[in-house]
Amino acid sequence: MAKRLIPCLNRVLVEKIIPPSKTTAGILLPEKSSKLNSGKVISVGPGTRDKSGNTIPVAVKEGDTVLLPEYGGTEVKLGEKEYHLFRDEDILGTLHD
Fold it and tell me: What is the top-level taxon of the source organism (predicted)?
């Protein structure tokens, strides 16, 4: 079984962030209250190449928090964890505090 996945070309490996279902006080939150489809970038491919052979780097880097589309991506399971593979152009943006 593989321990690490390095994406090819312009692919990005993302671990989705699951919002908490209850507060620290124990109050259960409705599912739609904090529905922001986001994830943390785990691994990034080297990028794609243009017609002249130059590498076009991926726009995000490892550790970034990104906004993801509602649908899409390829689900990948490594060990017990679930990840998703997205193309660089499918990622909607990066999130900052």
Answer: Eukaryota
Burial annotation 62-77 (CB, 10 A radius, 16+ → b, else e): eebbbebeeeebeeee
Q: pLDDT of 25-63, one tens digit each? A: 777 766 665 567 899 999 999 999 999 999 999 999 999
Other CB atoms within 10 Å distance of the CB of residue 47:
16
* pTM more than 0.85: no
| AA identity, residue 71 | Y
CA dist 84 and 48 (Å) reads: 19
Contact 41, 13 (CB under 8 A): yes
Residue 29 neighbours by CB distance under 10 Å: 12
The continuous run of DSSP H or E covering 86 comes out as strand 81-87
